[in-house]
Amino acid sequence: MSLQTLSEWLRCPICFLPLEPGGTLVLLCANGHAYDANKRGFVSLAGASRRLIGDSAEMLDARDTFLAAGWYQSLRDNLGDLVAREEPARLLDIGCGTGYYLRGVLERLPDTRALAMDLSPVAVARTVAGQGQVDGLVADVWSPIPVRDAAVDVILNVFAPRNPSEFHRMLRSGGLLAVVVPQETHLQELRAAGLALGVQANKSAQLAATLDAHFVLETRQATTRILSLDPGQVSSLVGMGPSAHHTDAATLAGEPDAERPVTVAVELLGFRRRD
What is the CATH code for 41-273? Predict the structure, then answer.
């Protein structure tokens, strides 16, 4: 990351003019709105209009632990295959988390520049750490996103919220939106035990309908696996996602000591931008 490469992605969140380097670790627009970047390789343009909570350090620790064991490696590989075929020059990861999926994609694309975006500053800091080809942005997906028009070839959106009109604006003509969503049976054993949140029925169909005004569904790949997880792995799996906000440590501590089957059922969908 450099202040120059970071600025090339961004527009002012107030007046929407392009941001440019304006001094040491300062981004500036032509109207004089200024924003402080930091030495860790990212800038926060989230504002303070909404009281949203990004992933905590504890949630990200749990995610690092679980994903490092390779349980979602096949999903990471499938995502990498899909994106690599596009040969993108510029890639935006919306809801980057720990950067696990983004790193997997960039391993195949050493010349691609990426912008990692998340509401959690801790998440963005982890994703950009040691990644010279990755810039970072803290921003709210539900607000106008401070990324320039048509600045992106591919958007990644893995288990993260979506803003269809903003995704369409940021993608170039013919760009790809790669989305990962859970299927209805995802983590069904944990939901039956009261440890995980429910999944919307027919989620991928609802997603396609929601995106239809801006995107055409082009590819769809569903995968289902049954994992055998010990209590520590179950704790990491529950603790790394939104269920962590609703399940306390005492509940997890009371779970059986034996390994348990857990269904992982996800869909990877490729959407092409409508022109």
Answer: 3.40.50.150
